[in-house]
Design goal:
The chain is α+β, with helices and mostly antiparallel strands. The chain folds into two domains: 78 residues, no CATH class; 154 residues, Rod shape-determining protein MreC, domain 1 (Thrombin, subunit H, Beta Barrel), CATH 2.40.10. It is built from four helices and twelve strands; from the N terminus they run ααααββββββββββββ. The chain has a six-stranded antiparallel barrel with strand order 1-2-5-4-3-12. It has a six-stranded antiparallel beta barrel with strand order 6-7-8-11-10-9. A hairpin with a 4-residue loop joins strand 4 and strand 5. The termini are far apart.
Length: 278
């Protein structure tokens, strides 16, 4: 039989002491020993000590039971919170979809009202792509030759001019924006009736060309389409004058115009398929 190392008793002294006390108590409480009064003085303190241990075990058990119950309740609360968070996520997603549908319906309602009141015939289309690189400023729409769209048809919003169709396929078309350098629109200053040509710069500002040096052009003047190019209906809003410079050695002013349309936010537009409503 292997010998116990000395440190075993040191490390387990509390457990061994407890076992010894319990064994002594069992021996002292046996029927044979209870008849012997000489053990009375020893038995009573031992029983008292054992009762303390029993009370401690009972209280410890109750404490463990309480902690376990709290743990179970905590797990239940965590599961409930997870379900609530999941439900909140679903509700937020539904709310987002509802708002998006509402905004889309509002935009479509505006387009329909404009179509009904416009003196020209249009079809509504969606923007499905865009190229706003330094070389070209274009958007792609979801309708083409199959919908009656042709090259050089004007593209507008209820607020202002967007551009013109430059290429079509069966189910889509490419639109050149009015801010592209290759774009030119016959225009007129609404207040003074001076005529000119709006040319894109490739940025957020366009040039109004061929305005006479003596013309009284002011910042804030509204620029509209003149209609003489045969592409854009007359009277469509283009933008507002932001600056007008006069040089002594030239005959035309340098006029800068800020377009009305925010080309980065186009989602639905109108294509003018006939300048005369039938």
């Amino acid at each position: 039989m292997a010998r116990l190392k000395p440190h075993f008793f040191y490390t387990h002294k509390r457990g061994l002491l407890l076992i010894a006390i319990i064994l002594i108590a069992i021996i002292l409480m046996s029927p044979d020993l209870q008849k012997r009064p000489r053990y009375y003085l020893i038995e009573k303190p031992v029983v008292f000590v054992i009762s303390l241990f029993q009370r401690g075990f009972t209280q410890t058990g109750a404490g463990i039971k309480g902690v376990w119950s709290s743990y179970i309740n905590l797990i239940g609360v965590q599961k409930e919170n997870a379900l609530l968070k999941q439900e909140i996520g679903h509700l937020r997603a539904e709310n987002t979809r509802y708002k998006e549908m509402t905004h889309s319906l509002e935009r479509m309602q505006t387009l329909l009202e404009f179509k009904d009141n416009a003196p020209f015939r249009t079809i509504s289309v969606r923007v499905i792509g865009r190229d706003t690189s330094n070389l070209f400023k274009t958007i792609t729409i979801d309708s083409g030759e199959g919908n009656g769209i042709k090259k050089d048809m004007a593209v507008i919003t209820p607020d202002a001019v967007v551009g013109r169709v430059i290429r079509t396929s069966r189910n889509s078309s490419l639109v050149l924006l009015m801010i592209d350098r290759n774009s030119a629109i016959a225009s007129i200053i609404q207040r003074t009736r001076d005529e000119g040509i709006i040319e894109g710069r490739g940025g957020s500002i366009a040039n109004l060309k061929y305005i006479q040096i003596l013309s009284d052009i002011q910042s804030g003047d509204v620029v509209i389409t003149s209609g003489i190019d045969g592409i854009y209906p007359k009277g469509m809003n283009i933008g507002r004058v932001v600056s007008a410079k006069k040089e002594s050695d030239v005959i035309f002013q340098e006029v800068a115009v800020a377009p009305v349309v925010d080309f980065t936010r186009l989602e639905e537009v109108l294509v003018v398929v006939d300048n005369n409503k039938k």
